Structures
1.
Amino acid sequence: MGKIIVVGSGFSGGILARKLAEECGRKVTIIEKRAHIGGNMYDEYDENGILVQKYGPHFLNTNKYFIIEFLEQYAELFPHDAKLLSFIDGNYVRLPFNFRTLQQLVGAKKSEALLAKMREKFAGRDRVPIFELVDSDDDDVREYGNLLFEKAYRTYTAKQWGLDPEDIDRSVLDRVPMAMNFDERYLNKDFQYLPKKGFTELFKNMLDHPNIEVRLNTDALDYIEFDEENKKITYGGETVELLVFTGAIDELFGLKYGRLPYRSLDIKYKYENKKSILPEEIVSYPQAPGYIRSTEYKKFTYGIDMDMPVSMTATEYPLQYDPESENANIPYYPIIAEDNIKLYEKYLKEAEKYGNIVLCGRLAEYKYYNMDICIEHALEKFEDIKKKLED
Ligand SMILES: Cc1cc2nc3c(=O)[nH]c(=O)nc-3n(C[C@H](O)[C@H](O)[C@H](O)COP(=O)(O)OP(=O)(O)OC[C@H]3O[C@@H](n4cnc5c(N)ncnc54)[C@H](O)[C@@H]3O)c2cc1C
């Protein structure tokens, strides 16, 4: 038996490491290049007791209760429905756009007939992608879809992705829906929670196992070597039996086919001596120059004194990922577009040649996984790995 190396300590790496350690009784070494565990879920308390998620706001939401049960082994969770507003033409409107937004944008009188049409056309559907409105055969529905798209969506998308909407994969654009009711929640999932003491605490507990060793501040790429001829992998000269990789796949293979593009975020913090800064925990700004949204973390820090006369906003400025840059050196979002998927597939073939590389997670699989999907997927991957190790 050789070494089991897990590169990355986010949900993908963390779950696979814990399962391998616990259920297979195997020693696992996690290699993490950052100074902390948790990947993009990392959070920490600031000096005011506000729990700040360093890599942008994250809300756990799922329709599958086993995901909640799984996480409750490692942390106490509390129910929290994420709420968002969008600042459009000087007014705050609910996100996702719902029937109230429609009334606000077209006026109460005109909205009556349109609401009736929407109810009929999309009967039984809770949320409908904006594009279904834009593509509708009904003139009024289409007109409203175009209004939303132009006012709120085109500019937001252009800023977030640095591309025209026409050049982005439809699956990404379809993530923004309109609520076919007056539901004020950002997400319509059945189970919406946050860990009381934060995600970092959850990860600490998950990785606290005698078979797990975590090495922080270590770039795995400095130690991994591929013997292409014999299809062998070594880490620091030792043979690797299993390499679980959750980082960027193009970097694993030395960018030999070129770099896969990602979007990054420059997050700017602003403290103010106010009890409250924003009218909601997150506000999106489709029409503002350069930035897309602001988060006021105090509003969802568990147990904090809301009357405390200080708060903070974290504002996200999307940028193209560039590992050499000072403010855009973290790959946040894979850019799902045809050419990029083709390039990804070349790297995938490269990995498959070895037979003992498991690619898991947003970066390694170049997919737009939400936390719940990422968790479920890691649990499924574990079952495959277990079978392989037992054979
Ligand atoms: C801004 C933002 C907001 C989000 N909000 C939500 C939300 O509200 N709800 C939701 O469900 N999901 C959300 N997500 C998605 C969620 O963040 C992901 O599903 C999840 O964090 C992915 O985990 P992962 O382990 O695959 O990747 P990551 O968390 O990125 O972990 C990968 C780890 O690998 C490490 N690594 C990479 N290369 C190397 C190397 N060479 N050597 C050593 N270590 C390496 C990295 O440092 C990192 O720690 C959001 C994502 C973003 C970007």
2.
Amino acid sequence: MLLNFDFSLARKYHSAAQQIRVMSENWVLQNIYCVKCGYRQLAPFANNTPVGDFYCPSCKKNFELKTHKTDIKSKITDGAFSSMIDKIEKHTVPNFFYLHYAPADYRVQNFIVIPGYYFTRRIIEKRQPLAPTARRAGWVGCNINLRAIPESGKLYLIRKQQIADKSQILSSFNQMFFLHRHKEENKGWLLDIMKCIEKLNKRIFSLQDLYRFEPVLQEKHPCNRNIRPKIRQQLQILRDANYLAFIEKGLYQIL
Ligand SMILES: [Zn+2]
């Protein structure tokens, strides 16, 4: 894997945005493999295809590229709000690539994959409609709120120019792939519990540790009157998915 963009590709273009688009797309095609099946190279979609920028010729998963000269923040700006909600409902959200490059030397600093199966309506924020004077007046875009996604949903293929082991990335992506089978409400609960477990910052934790989040979870799910059984139910699902193991009664270990 090479970290530098091929600058010779930029010569044909005048606009800086177009240069970055061409170089970063080319870089992905040269260097990035499919994080689901490991296939060595992705293929490009035709320009402006609504489903994404790349797909895997082997397993057909889709990918969308976001290229920025800044590190990943708590929010990513994305396209139309309505089409994102539609994709979430139809379970067709692409996997997101966040490419952070240094503008001084066009070198990739971080490359993060956010699997599409982590997306729920709750992480999508509606932006203000564009002003009446704008070319696309009234158009409504969205932001992806990354704070609501657990850390396990940010796979660093490259972190501070260090390249992660491919087998590790494939195993992380596939370990949580079971989330795509869960409906919105269920998935929201699972992600909430995973975020709580992360906040504990312990490899081994108890049920009592998690019960301390009861008021926070109650606030997020005001209609639910059985928060504790719900917590235990999510722990069982996470155990069946090999995310954690039950050590003894009321004691759990993250795998
Ligand atoms: Zn694949």
